[in-house]
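Q: Sugar diacid recognition domain-containing protein, please. Structure only.
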Amino acid sequence: MRLLTHVAQRIVNEVSQVIVEEVIAINSDGTIIASSDKSRVGQYHEGGVEVIQSKEKRMITLDDVERLKGVKVGLNLPISFQQQIIDVIGITGSQPDTVRYGELIQKMTELIIQESYAAEQLDAKLRGIETYVSEWLHSEVLTRSSLNVVKF
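A: Structure for Sugar diacid recognition domain-containing protein:
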């Protein structure tokens, strides 16, 4: 499972309305898939790759900015789904403010992913039931077993 680009951008847009810091979403390949700074979308983010590998949040310092590709000072947080790290959310800024906002954004993103997954599962189940009923109703051959499926 991955954070879909349009969902990631929606999260970034919503968060950007509340805070002034820059927000990004990074996929498991290290590519920025959503950003409050549109020019960063598609760029490689080495800090995000380190978070995916370590499975732990990571503060990006001024020293890191000089040695890691595509990073800015801030916090990168892993986004998990079903005990697996699937993406990274990044927020620029100084440590006290960044940590406070970042962990809230992390949890919000994980909840949105869980909600999207549950909705997908329900839709798939409903489509399966709909297909079964449609095939049953439009069947040209009725067998005794197909009549026993629904009891009146």
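A: Brief note, in case it's useful. The chain has a mean pLDDT of 87.
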